[in-house]
Amino acid sequence: MAGLLKRFRQSYFLYSFLRDPVAVTSFALFVVLALSALLAPVIAPHNPFDGANIDIMDAETPPLWKDGGNPAFLLGTDNQGRDLFSAILYGMRVSLLIGVGAVAMQACIGIMVGLLSGYGSRRLDNILMRIADVQLSFSSYMVAIFLGAIVQMTFGVGRYEQVAVPFLVLVIGLAEWPQYARTVRASVLAEKKKEYVEAARVIGLRPFRIMWRHILPNTLTPVLVISTVQVANAIMSEAALSFLGLGMPVTKPSLGSLIKSGFQYFFSGSWWITLFPGVVLILLVLSINLLGDWLRDFLNPKLYKD
């Protein structure tokens, strides 16, 4: 372990990362936001899910520094009387969970399809790529409307909040996997013509073993870059779906549902209900995208400039 840590400290990866102030700042911001979300039960002064601690009389309390602010609510409260700071922390955790879960599902489906399409027969390649083309023609919002109607009819609106998180992971994951499939397929088509693959065939290795043990590790670089960008896209998709009423319910806050709950009060003076979750969402997505851009440039020698 000590040797591995020493090699990491001496690596060109860490050297390049520390010399890029944008990457370092983005990483620091992301770590602060992610840790704040993970430690929400410890950091948050209130539990927005506990109805016993919510008083409707505290609804739309302004931030602490404005007239009428309450020291108990640093960023004010929303229209239900929930502490906005606590709701943002818990909501950010839900948004990150959905983003990471959806990307994991996208990667699993897309990598499998991409490997089979790139290494398999031309007929299998055509079938899988046409399925991917059909999938790309449906946006995540169309899939959410279709599946959301089925889920709410099956479980009922009251029980929907219990399955809202896995539902959004499923919707966003099913809608975006072709991005991975196309990228992995292109890498496999290039890798399977190389000498090490021919050598593996000559010694009698099965195609499944060649795909998963030899070709796949050499296609993970673009997959890693895509994953960073897709996490940000998945978080934005969750926010958009929640804002449209197709995502997280108001009783279970996420960044998107918090923005939606305060949007109708924005021009009536309670601007903080929408503004603060929106700012946090922008910072979270921006930090992930900037890290993804740096990682893409670092892993591509043709783009990276020292």
UniProtKB/TrEMBL annotation:
Which parts pass through the membrane?
Answer: 21-44, 94-117, 138-157, 271-292
| Topology versus the membrane | Multi-pass membrane protein
Q: Which SUPFAM superfamilies match?
A: MetI-like
Tell where it localizes: Cell membrane
**What Pfam family is a match for this entry?**
OppC_N
Which superkingdom, per the lineage? Bacteria
Q: Which UniProt keywords apply?
A: Cell membrane, Membrane, Transmembrane, Transmembrane helix, Transport
- Domain ABC transmembrane type-1 intervals: 92-292
Similarity field: Belongs to the binding-protein-dependent transport system permease family.
Name it. ABC transporter permease
